[in-house]
Amino acid sequence: NNSTVPTVSVVSISSVDHITLVVCDGSSIRVNNNSVSASDGKLQVVLWKSDRLVSLSISDRSEFENSGNGANERNDDGSLLNVISFDSSPQLLVAISLTSSFRLDGNYITNSVATTGSVIAGAAAFSVIFTVSGDSSLSFSHNTIKYSNFKESVAVIAFVDCGGNISFSSLRGSYISIAGNRIEDCTAHTS
Asked: Is the full-model pTM beyond 0.90?
């Protein structure tokens, strides 16, 4: 319930060089059941920002999970409202392997007048690469965006790629799930 601040985040990691997160050996990182609300700035439950590279590696029966988070109530300056945001230049790499998981499930965005709103959003000058292998999973499911008056666009997944490529790869018995999401009662002006 902060107001008149530039950015509100539950977790914020910023670097002028590389950001590397490694989760392995049956471990887990969970950023679940948080809420950011009633702010006049940018609302981000999780913000990763690097001038060069953001690299997430989840392996060896481990998991990275952002679920049940909410970004809601108000964002009156008309900027950004996301559950998780990657701001990486030039590259975002996410590798999930060896019966591990990356999940963004059951999040919600509601009652906003922000410019854009997404469950997961990223801007990368060259590439965004998700690779899932070894009986692992990548899931963006059962998220909700509703009752919103976004000025530009609204999406469950939104990556802005300026001149490079966006890749989602599922290999060797693994899967990518984008299911059960809802966008309702929104009045985005462009898309």
From this structure: no
For CA atoms 45, 168, 54, 21, the dihedral sign is positive
Reported as a single tens digit per residue, the pLDDT across 107-132 is 988 877 788 888 898 887 788 999 99
Q: Are 109 and 147 in contact (CB under 8 A)?
A: no
Q: Could you give the CA distance from residue 30 to residue 24 in angstroms, rounded to a whole number?
A: 13
Rounded Cα–Cα distance for residues 50 and 86 (Å): 8
- Cβ-count burial 61-75 (b if 16+ within 10 Å, e if not): bbbbbbbbbbbbbbb
Q: Is 33 helix (H, G, I), strand (E, B) or coil?
A: coil
**Strand ranges for the chain from DSSP E:** 7-15, 18-23, 28-30, 35-39, 42-50, 53-58, 63-65, 70-75, 80-88, 91-96, 101-103, 108-110, 116-124, 127-132, 137-139, 144-148, 153-161, 165-170, 175-177, 182-186
pLDDT digits (tens, 9 = 90+) for 154-171: 899 988 877 778 899 999
Residue 52, number of CB atoms within 10 A of its CB: 14
At 83, the amino acid letter reads V
Amino acid, single-letter form, for residue 139:
S
d(CA 97, CA 89): 24
